[in-house]
Design a protein that fits this description.
single chain; alpha/beta; six-stranded parallel beta sheet; about 15% strand; elongated
């Protein structure tokens, strides 16, 4: 019993001193106490001793590993310091005359590593921490009097606790120990401040990268816009309108400019007080990058996009911009595309380059060519700008291709009245050819797709054709009312301003006008330089016109005295005996100033020119009216003297005519003569925000050129066939859009009596127009302005409801001539 008690005490002493934390050994001790066997107790003691030895070996291994790791890190720091010293010595040897201090060298090398290595900051932090722990641990080992306190096991760990937790050094005892602990703590605070700064910089850099839009876009079936220009916002707005019926969509923009700047422009347009941009459920994603780089294109989902719009760069020469677009197309062709590409170019002569590199999936839109053709047509047809803008935009009616099985076998003449909420324009045949305004006897084939003008692709259906027979009978009764539309005679046109593509505009205008017409060019370009400018640095041939005679006038369009009288000069600048005034022209076109720094500056000059021309026209007409009235008054006074003061005039029939009535008739005649040559000047406007300024001063003659080009590109992006349709409608060849008086189709003059008013429905006039192979697309009442008749000028409602027509009403048609 005494031996057993002694063995129990020995076991408890060993457990308390060497292995207090091992629960398994404690359990063994309890089991050993309960067992009576002496051999089992001895075996447990031996087993506990082995476990203690194993635990000590593990601690020793960890200690040795920590020492090795610390020594390796110190060696790495020493090696780096030695290499930097060698670099300094080499610089001193190579540049004996170069004088610098060690501080300057340290700053230079530190900046070098920070700018060339992304690991420089973390390594600096780790090195500073290691040095602080080593130095602090050594100092603690020196100042501590405890013999068991060694540098390798205790002081380094305590130094780390001081660095990691500033409050740990409060338990230090002794003045020297407290001083060293305080220094280590201050160093630890600096190290952690450095760590926070590095982490903050890294997070800020990541956030900036997110703001710059460098991450990959994970989208499909989206519209991809490459580049950013003054047309971008209008394109985004139109595509958003097109996506509205589908609940919205995605537009991804990749441009070589700041993502933040593009987002700011979009937000500013959305927050505008006047005509704010509405996305209507569409999400716009911006990314910064070079669009002509393949790896940048791969980040914006180029292979999964449904349409790609490539915008021409701004601020560069047209030829250079077009060459950039050629490279853009080549970069896109290197990717696997499922979408068609809409490319904006600036020179019509460079269009063939795109066709050469990508003839199948690219639609080219030449902005300057479109603007030139549009300006010419709008100058000759006042009000056409409103029609074209309504025709191209998605806000209202637009073009749709659709196959209608129930109309197979019908002629195009019969199809005219088969859509209550749409207007058939043409047919896309199975071969892919788009026939706008086909012959009346053309039979709709099985695979033909009818081109209609409608509000949306799901807002119109084909009716049963019950109204068609009634319209045909009525049209046959009115067939005698068909009249010959008068052709234009010789015209006199004025172009104010200069464009780089002036030669192309002159050639296009020459195809429209009758022989003997005149074109006066009024701008600040010297007459002697215009011939060379028209050649465009020998890129074009000399302009030769068969219908136009060109007259040069040198002057500033925003100076009133230059606009009062226009004196023609020859190519050498010598004055000719030809003078004209602004009230004598049939059409006046004000071109935007390409030399202006911004669109706002160009529009300011255009508005000034427009207002001056209108005021000069008004003054000249008033002066002519006054002169005519004076001449009539003088002739009237002479007549009174000759007739010996006979006031009443007796006619052959015995009726008496009052002189006052004659005077009123003469006044009406004078008014007609004064307004015979008055025309509405048409000004080119680049910025859509200028529209509100024009409405304030009551100016209606303007063309939003950039806006219309944006609408065009949006239409082609949604349906590539629209490029062929719109190109024909704005070309001198093929079908064009005309504004014609209703009395060209019905005898309104013979229907002035109350019981014989001109009461017909729109389909009646549409069928009359089809007899001339014309497509009636809408009308404008005489008592409404263009901006107020948007719902009527295209695809009017209630086509089968009769209305009273006035001889001043206008019918909008698509015709060949």
């Amino acid at each position: 019993g005494i031996e057993k008690t002694r063995m129990e005490e020995e076991s408890m002493r060993i457990a308390d001193e060497r292995l207090p934390s091992l629960s398994s050994v404690a359990d063994g001790m309890i089991e050993m106490i309960e067992r009576p066997s002496e051999d089992i107790a001895k075996g447990c003691v031996v087993e506990a001793s082995k476990e203690v030895i194993t635990e000590h070996e593990h601690v020793a291994f960890v200690s040795y590993f920590a020492r090795a790791l610390l020594l390796s890190w110190v060696c790495l720091i020493v090696r780096f310091a030695v290499s930097e010293i060698r670099v300094a010595r080499q610089k001193c040897k190579r540049n004996n005359e170069l004088k610098f201090t060690w501080v300057e060298l340290f700053q230079y090398r530190l900046e070098h590593h920070f700018s060339t290595s992304k690991w420089a900051k973390p390594m600096l932090l780790l090195s500073a921490t290691s040095i602080l722990i080593l130095v602090g641990g050594a100092m603690l080992a020196i100042v501590t009097t405890n013999e068991d306190f060694t540098f390798d096991s205790d002081s380094a760990w305590i130094a780390w606790t001081y660095v990691a937790d500033p409050g740990t050094h409060a338990d230090a005892e002794g003045t020297a120990v407290r001083f060293v602990s305080f220094c280590i703590t201050i160093g630890g605070m600096l190290v952690f401040a450095l760590m926070i700064g590095i982490i903050s910089d890294e997070i800020s850099g990541r956030v900036d990268d997110l703001k710059e839009g460098k991450s990959r876009v994970i989208e499909s079936n989206h519209t991809l816009m490459l580049g950013w220009s003054d047309k971008s916002l209008a394109i985004i707005e139109q595509i958003a309108l097109a996506n509205e019926s589908e609940g919205g969509g995605y537009i991804v923009v990749l441009a070589d400019m700041s993502k933040v700047e593009m987002e700011q422009q979009l937000n500013h347009a959305m927050d505008s007080n006047e005509r704010p941009l509405k996305l209507l459920g569409t999400t716009v994603v911006f990314r910064s990058g070079n669009p002509i780089m393949e790896h940048e294109l791969s980040k914006v989902g180029v292979s999964t996009a449904r349409a790609i719009i490539a915008l021409s760069p701004m601020g560069v020469e047209p030829d250079e911009a077009d060459s950039t677009m050629v490279r853009q197309v080549l970069a896109l062709n290197s990717c696997e595309l499922s979408a068609h590409i809409v490319v904006e170019m600036q020179d019509i002569d460079n269009k063939a380059l795109i066709t050469m590199v990508s003839p199948d999936n690219v639609e080219v839109v030449v902005a300057h060519d479109i603007i030139g053709r549009l300006m010419i047509q709008c100058a000759r047809e006042p009000g056409l700008a409103h029609v074209i803008e309504s025709l191209l935009g998605f806000d209202g009616d637009e073009f749709y291709f659709e196959n209608w099985e129930k109309l197979t076998g019908c002629t195009f003449f019969e199809v005219t009245c088969r859509f209550d909420d749409a207007v058939p324009i043409g047919v896309k045949k199975a071969s892919g050819y788009i026939d706008i305004n086909p012959p009346n006897d053309y039979v709709i084939q099985e695979n033909d797709r009818i081109l209609c003008l409608a509000e949306d692709n799901d807002t119109y259906t084909a009716n049963d054709g019950s109204f068609l027979s009634k319209c045909i009978v009525l049209s046959q009764k009115l067939k005698a009312a068909k009249m010959t539309i008068p052709r234009r005679g010789k015209e006199k046109l004025l172009f104010c301003g200069w464009r780089r593509d002036m030669a192309d505009m002159i050639v296009q205008l020459d195809e429209y006008v009758a022989p003997g017409s005149e074109l006066w060019l009024f701008n600040q370009v010297p007459a002697s330089e215009r011939v060379e400018l028209l050649k465009d640095k020998d890129n074009k041939d000399e302009v030769r016109c068969s219908h136009l005679a060109i007259k040069n006038v040198v002057g500033n369009p925003i100076v009133r005295r230059h606009l009062k009288i226009l004196n023609a000069v020859d190519n050498n600048g010598e004055a000719l005996n030809e003078v004209s005034t602004v009230d004598q022209f049939d059409s006046i076109l004000i071109l935007s100033d390409e030399d202006a720094s911004t669109c706002e500056d160009s529009d300011s000059r255009s508005i000034a020119t427009l207002l001056i021309i209108q005021d000069v026209q008004r003054n000249l007409i008033d002066k002519k009216k006054k002169l005519m009235m004076d001449e009539k008054m003088n002739s009237s006074s002479s007549s009174e003297t000759i007739t010996a003061k006979v006031l009443p005039i007796t006619t052959i029939d015995g009726d008496t005519t009052d002189m006052n009535n004659n005077t009123n008739e003469n006044d009406d005649e004078t008014e007609c003569l004064c307004h015979e040559h008055k025309c509405v000047p048409i000004s080119e406007i680049l910025d859509t925000r200028t529209r509100s300024l024009l409405s304030v001063v009551g100016c209606t003659g303007y063309v939003m050129s950039n806006h219309i080009v944006s609408l065009w590109m949006s239409q082609v992006a949604e349906d590539r066939d629209m490029n062929a349709v719109l190109s024909e409608l704005l070309s001198a060849k093929g079908c064009e859009t005309y504004i014609r008086s209703v009395d060209h189709y019905i005898h309104i003059s013979s229907c002035q009596e109350e019981e014989q008013k001109a009461v017909y429905c729109f389909w009646d006039l549409a069928l009359l127009a089809r007899q001339r192979r014309e497509v009636a697309i809408g009308y404008k009442p005489h008592n409404m302005e263009w901006r107020d008749s948007t719902d009527l000028i295209l695809n009017p409602p209630n086509k089968n409801v009769p209305r009273v027509w006035d001889m001043k009403d206008m019918l909008l048609v698509i015709a060949f001539d």
